[in-house]
Design brief:
two-stranded antiparallel sheet, about 40% helix, Transposase Inhibitor Protein From Tn5, Chain A, domain 1, alpha+beta, 10-stranded mixed beta sheet
Amino acid sequence: MNDETTRDICDSNRWGLPAEAIADLGNRLQRFWERFRGCFKTKTRDSAEHAWSYLRGLLLMKTKRNFANIDRRVTNPEGDGQNLQQFMSDSPWAAQPPIQQVQQEIASTPGLEQGGVLLLDESAEEKAGEKSAGAGRQHNGRLGKVEMSQVGVFLAYYKAPVWTWVDGELYLQKHWFTPEMAAERRRVGVPAERKFATKIELGWRMIQRAKVPFEAVAMDDLYGRSGWLRRQMDQAGILYMAEIPEDTQVYLTKPDFGIPPSKPDKPGRPFTRPQVLSDEKPVEVRQIVSLSDTHFRRFQVRSTERGVLDDPFAMRRVWTIRDGELAEEWLVIRHEYDKRYTYALSNAPADTSHERLAWLKCVRHFVERSNQDAKSETGWDEFQAQKYRAWEHHLALTILATWFIAQTKYDWVNAHPRDPQLAQQMELEVLPALSVANVRELLQAVMPLPQLSQEQATHLVVKHLVKRSRSTRSRLKSQRSQRGQT
């Protein structure tokens, strides 16, 4: 490739990144913020400036986004983060208004009126101890084991090319609601009206209050195995694609199902619960893969940066006992990358095309993208505060950050389309999309974080050394005191 061709390929205008759009990015963030600043006012105080500082910290900083560092890097070079911590942990502003406003903006965005999908999933963060709201020994999917963790249930929205978190709930295990934990609930600020709810119930709560337009819900097998949740969505007219474990049992032919008749010659209470009355036996879904009448066919689901997603799929109608009722559902089997089989149940109509089912089966990929953007790119996994309210506040501002990125990318795609010849020139089906890191690089250029002077940096180091010295002195005094008592 010669120098002239390289220059041509590196022309930012061809990539949909004109200089005027980049130059306006800082103003764009300011305008975005002005739409939301009213959400951070209470009856007695306007804390909007703290929220603005925190949002910029999430977007502009790459790592170490704790209260003290955000304060120093964004607001005050000599700040200690105390005001930010109070704003996040104790200020009474409600988290739901900015979250609901994000959903309303999505709903009013031209081009996102239909075709969207909600993605339900959970995510766990490892914790060093039990002092954070919701912390406890529970399954951590990231670690693949039971560990001291804090778990959130999250709702994401996807419609190409947009994906972003739109809601979340902190999961509190049952032991958090025991009388023995009353003092701890008060310490971390768990609302008195908060009652125990399963992850599945939290997920259904968020789906019910979602204000974004969506045509389906995709969820992993923790939620998909719940017949109760699938029945709730079916009764509400919500289309779902629910992942299920490989040992899930289904019927290949419709069984007789009902309440067994009472027999006069057999004493005892009459039957009250319906059950299978015929001789059909259920099979585990993993057994269906090898049946002679299970036919796999490749579907080209979408083009990706890594190539074409065209795995083999098998679809067939099955019957399940869904929360005590007989239900006819689609079983969708995917042979992922020709290595492993995954399974899902859907209440899609019987005449739904197999192409549509294959697409829905694969859409959960974008919940992983949403989680990655929120956690690795906008600081979700760096959250350290202990209080319940701080978790909710961090969620709201993380959702603002991910929506700003998603909205910016979406607007630029529509306002500044890429040169259609570029993909052909690069010999690609799909050109890579802007990443969060890409947008951050551009933001940092137009909104540079203040740099410390030599004197300011020296002063901060000395303050840190003094603080550590006082802490060491305090521990030594405590040790001497204990030894004197013994």
